[in-house]
Design brief:
heterodimer, A: mainly alpha, 4 helices, globular, B: about 300 residues, alpha+beta, Alpha-Beta Plaits, five-stranded antiparallel β-sheet, three-stranded antiparallel β-sheet
Chain lengths: ~110, ~300
């Protein structure tokens, strides 16, 4: 409950403050968001599995965001930025899907 | 007699199977095992400040990304609207400048006529006026014909639609070449002064197209194209209909549905050309000789 409130507070804070994303970070924001979502769904599944650990969650979240942005940055420098973004989105998408499937099994037993 | 080791049937797709089978960070299981080994009781780690901070961060990221994406499209629309407004205002400014230019030219003409009159140089004034009429430097009036040319009815786009959206070749549209032929036909038929939609044509005028718009002296025209020609109203229509320009117009009307209408008028007023400006050409006679009244060789 408290983490959900934290999420809502973050969204409201973002809408109120309207943070301006610096130009150099703009291409990496969407991929960072997808990576963050992957970490959050992983954490939610771990919570339902009963093995949630806040340190693992924090580290996986930050490393996911940074590595996803780094891969896209590297791809941009090598001229394969959009292809690498697609690859990152596919991998993270598969992981999000299977984690959400596990969460669904926990919640609905189906 | 050893059996070969059994290969998994999906061995060639280990990457995908691993992705599907182990979507969860193994760190969670390892941390749980460590806790169990250390005998630390399971608390409520999901309520820790670290988790909360990360979730607030995620909310911020989501909001920032959403605002970013929406902000981009709104700025683009605002940018385009600003550009359209700029084009409209600059167009109005250009029209105003053209009008001011015409008024100033008329004043110059009047002032010069007055000066020449005072110096009793009547012949020179007449000569200047005659040359001005021929070159299009002064506005002229006289009887003539009014020729209205318009696109075929089907090719007039619905109001508000993008004229460039229809990619198909549009045969019912008046082209710059058609207007060129018409104007050349009028000159050949004895027209003494011609204007299209209020743009006086001179020896330096160009009728050309940019995109789907027809430009006369780099000013875009909108259909219908009203072509005024000063000439003998009794003789000009017949001669024009027989000229290549007139025949081409009839052909276009018969085959592509282009509409045209020819009426005679007893009094037409054609403005002076706004774009008459000589930058490079020099007369052959030395300038000193011009001060004396030139020998008028009547054509």
């Amino acid at each position: 409950m408290i983490p959900a409130l934290g999420l809502i507070a973050g969204v409201v804070l973002g809408l109120v403050l309207q943070p301006s994303v610096p130009i150099w970070a703009q291409p990496y924001l969407p991929i960072a968001v997808v990576a963050a979502l992957d970490a959050v769904f992983g954490g939610l599944r771990a919570l339902l599995d009963g093995i949630f650990d806040d340190k693992v969650f924090v580290v996986s979240f930050l490393s996911n965001v940074i590595i996803a942005a780094l891969i896209v940055y590297l791809g941009d420098q090598l001229g394969v930025g959009s292809q690498l973004s697609t690859g990152v989105v596919v991998v993270l998408g598969i992981r999000i899907f299977s984690n959400v499937a596990a969460i669904r099994r926990h919640l609905f037993h189906a | 007699m050893s059996q070969p080791p059994l290969r998994r049937p999906d061995a060639s797709m280990t990457l995908l199977t691993q992705l599907m089978d182990r979507p969860l960070d193994p760190g969670y299981a390892a941390a749980a095992a460590r806790r169990r080994a250390d005998g630390v009781p399971d608390g409520r780690p999901e309520r820790s400040a670290r988790t909360l901070a990360i979730l607030v961060l995620l909310g911020l990221l989501l909001a920032a990304a959403a605002l970013q994406t929406r902000g981009q499209s709104t700025t683009r629309i605002a940018e385009r609207d600003r550009m359209i407004a700029q084009i409209t205002s600059q167009d109005a400014v250009a029209s105003g400048l053209q009008r001011a230019n015409l008024a100033l030219q008329a004043r110059i003409e009047a002032e010069r006529a007055r000066q020449l009159d005072q110096q009793s140089q009547g012949a020179l004034a007449d000569r200047i006026t005659q040359l001005g009429v021929l070159t299009g430097a002064v506005s002229v009036t006289g009887p003539g014909i009014l020729l209205t040319v318009n696109d075929a009815p089907a090719s007039v786009p619905a109001p508000g639609s993008d004229p460039r959206a229809s990619a198909a070749v549009d045969n019912g549209r008046v082209l710059d070449q058609d207007l060129q032929l018409v104007v050349n036909g009028l000159w050949a038929s004895g027209a003494e002064a011609v204007s299209i939609n209020g743009q006086r044509l001179t020896a330096l005028s160009a009728i050309r197209s940019a995109g789907q718009a027809i430009l006369v002296d780099y000013r875009p025209l909108a259909p219908p194209y009203a072509i005024s020609a000063i000439g003998d109203p009794n003789q000009l229509p017949a001669t024009f209909s027989d000229s290549p320009g007139g025949r081409n117009l009839k052909y276009l009307a018969d085959n592509f549905g282009i509409r045209y209408n020819l009426t005679t008028s007893t009094r037409l007023v054609l403005p002076a050309s706004a774009g008459l400006d000589i930058r490079q050409a020099q007369p052959v006679t030395p300038p000193a000789a011009v001060t004396a009244p030139p020998v008028v060789t009547s054509p």
